[in-house]
Design goal:
Rossmann fold, 3 domains, six-stranded mixed beta sheet, alpha/beta, two-stranded antiparallel sheet
Length: 465
C-alpha cells in the first residue's frame, strides 16, 4: 500500500471500527434488556443506556488505537483469523484493565458487567466479520487488473532490479508494472511514449547510478504530463530544503514530485460526493430520462444511447454514455465537415451541426443529453466536476505534453470551460488553460461553485449547441 493512501485507509478503517463498537454497545444493552425482561423479570430492569456513556467514551475511541498498537491493521491479506482474534482479545483485555482502574480509582460505577461481557463477545465477532468482508473486497480488487495502479519503473537495470526485489508482496499485488525504462540508455521520448501507451498513473525512479541531469529531464516530463514522479530516497545522506516525501511499503523513503492535487481527505470526500450526488441526481432526473427516451425514439431511428470511447484519467479509455442527439452515422460524416471546424487543436466543433436532429437540439439546449454520464460517475470513471473527457482519437492527437496534464484528474460532467462561455471558446489552448487552472486550484468549494454555476447556465439556456 502506498504511504499516503495507507494512512487514509487506516483512518477510514479506524473510524468504521469506532462506529461498529458504538453500535455493538447499543446492541448489547438492548439484548441484555430483552433477555432480562423476557426470562428474568424478577431481577428488575438494567440501568438506562445513558449510564453506559462513560464506558463508551473509553471503549469506542480507544479500541481502534489499541488495535493499531497490536498490529491489527497491518497486512490484512496475509493474516490468519487466529492472529486477528488474538489481537482483538488482547485489545479488549487492555480496555478491561483501563475500565477496572477507572472503577477503582475514580469510583465510576460499572452499571452492568453482563453488558460489558456482551460487548466483548459481540464486538469480537463483529470486528472479525468486518475484517473478513474487507479482506474479501481487497482480494477481489487485487485480482482485478483494472484496479491495479499502472506504474513505470525507471533507472538503470541494476537499480530497478534491486528496487523491484525490495518491494513486498503487498506493494507488488497493488501495482501493475507496465514497463521498465533504462534511463541511462533509452531516450526520454520512450519514457513519454510509455506514459501515453499505458495511461500510467505513477513513475517510480530508482536512480542511484544515473546522472541527475537525465533524472531532472525525466521528472520534468512527468510533471508536464500530470503524472506523479516518485524518486527513491535511499541515496540521500543530507537534508534537503522543503522536500516532499512519502513512503512506499514499510518505511521506504520516496521523494515525490506532484503537479496535481495530493491524495487527501478532500479527494476522498470528492469521491463520496460524486457517488452520492450522482445517485440523487439520477433519481430526481428519471422523468427527464423518460422524456428523452420517447423523444429520441419518435424523432430519429436508431439507439437511444450514444456510446463512445473517451480518454479518462491519465488517458485511460472508458465508454462514456450520452443520449443520442445526432443521426446514427454522425461519426462517419465528421470528415466531410472538417473544413467547418471552429476549434483549434485536436478538438472538433461546428455551429449548427447538420448531424443533430431537431429533438437532439432540444436535449443539448437543456443539457439533458449529459444525464447518462451519471452512470459513469457511479462507476468511478467520471466525476461530477472535472475536465471534460475528449474522444480517445482526439486524445491521441494532443501534440504537447503540457496539454496532457488536463488528463491527470478524473474527467467531469461539468467544468470551468462549460460555465465560462464554452460556445465562445474556440482555442484549445484556452480550454486547456481553464482546465489546468481548475487542477492547480482545486478544492471542494471550487467544485460546489462550478456545480451551482452549471445549474444557472442550464436554467438560462446557455447550454451546448
Amino acid at each position: 500500500m502506498l504511504g499516503r493512501k495507507q494512512e487514509i485507509n487506516l483512518q477510514v478503517n479506524q473510524i468504521l471500527d469506532s462506529v461498529l463498537i458504538a453500535l455493538v454497545f447499543w446492541l448489547s444493552h438492548s439484548l441484555h434488556f430483552w433477555i432480562r425482561a423476557r426470562f428474568f423479570p424478577q431481577h428488575g430492569n438494567i440501568p438506562p443506556f445513558e449510564e453506559f456513556f462513560w464506558l463508551m467514551a473509553i471503549v469506542v475511541p480507544f479500541t481502534p488505537i489499541i488495535l493499531e498498537f497490536h498490529g491489527y491493521y497491518d497486512h490484512p491479506l496475509h493474516k490468519t483469523v487466529a492472529k486477528s482474534l488474538g489481537q482483538i482479545l488482547r485489545t479488549f483485555f487492555v480496555l478491561g484493565l483501563v475500565i477496572g482502574a477507572c472503577v477503582i480509582f475514580f469510583q465510576w460505577g460499572a452499571s452492568s458487567r453482563i453488558v460489558l461481557i456482551l460487548v466483548g463477545v459481540i464486538g469480537s465477532g463483529a470486528l472479525l466479520l468486518k475484517e473478513a468482508l474487507v479482506v474479501a473486497w481487497l482480494r477481489k480488487r487485487v485480482q482485478s487488473e483494472g484496479w491495479k495502479e499502472r506504474v513505470l519503473l525507471v533507472g538503470t537495470p541494476d537499480d530497478v532490479t534491486k528496487f523491484r526485489e525490495s518491494l513486498g508482496p503487498v506493494e507488488l499485488s497493488e501495482m501493475q508494472v507496465c514497463e521498465e525504462i533504462d534511463i541511462s540508455r533509452q531516450p526520454l521520448e520512450e519514457l513519454v511514449d510509455a506514459l501515453h501507451r499505458y495511461s500510467v498513473e505513477r513513475v517510480l525512479f530508482s536512480v542511484g547510478h544515473v546522472h541527475f541531469d537525465k533524472v531532472q529531464h525525466a521528472i520534468s516530463a512527468c510533471e508536464l504530463e500530470g503524472v506523479e514522479a516518485w524518486l527513491a530516497g535511499d541515496f540521500i545522506t543530507t537534508s534537503i530544503a522543503r522536500p516532499t516525501f512519502d513512503t512506499l511499503g514499510e518505511g521506504r523513503l520516496m521523494m515525490v514530485f506532484r503537479s496535481t492535487p495530493e491524495i487527501s481527505w478532500q479527494l476522498l470526500a470528492k469521491q463520496v460526493i460524486d457517488r452520492v450526488g450522482a445517485a440523487i441526481a439520477l433519481f430526481l432526473s428519471l422523468p427527464l430520462w423518460i422524456v428523452a427516451y420517447l423523444g429520441i425514439k419518435l424523432s430519429s431511428p436508431g439507439p437511444v444511447m450514444f456510446k463512445q470511447m473517451r480518454g479518462g484519467k491519465h488517458g485511460k479509455p472508458f465508454m462514456m454514455n450520452k443520449f443520442r442527439t445526432m443521426v446514427v452515422d454522425a461519426e462517419a460524416k465528421q470528415a466531410a465537415l472538417q473544413a467547418r471546424n471552429q476549434m483549434s487543436g485536436p478538438v472538433f466543433k461546428v455551429d449548427d451541426d447538420p448531424r443533430i436532429f431537431h429533438f437532439g437540439r432540444f436535449l443539448r439546449k437543456w443539457s439533458i443529453d449529459e444525464l447518462p454520464q451519471l452512470l459513469n460517475v457511479l462507476k468511478g470513471e467520471m466525476s461530477l466536476v472535472g475536465p471534460r473527457p475528449l474522444p480517445s482519437y482526439e486524445v491521441e492527437k494532443i501534440e504537447y505534453s503540457s496539454q496532457r496534464r488536463r488528463l491527470s484528474m478524473n474527467p467531469g460532467i461539468t467544468c470551468i470551460w462549460q460555465v465560462s462561455g464554452r460556445n465562445n471558446i474556440t482555442d484549445f489552448e484556452e480550454w486547456v488553460r481553464l482546465d489546468l487552472n481548475y487542477i492547480d486550484n482545486w478544492s471542494i468549494w471550487l467544485d460546489v461553485k462550478i456545480l451551482l454555476q452549471t445549474v444557472l447556465v442550464v436554467l438560462f439556456r446557455r447550454g451546448a449547441q
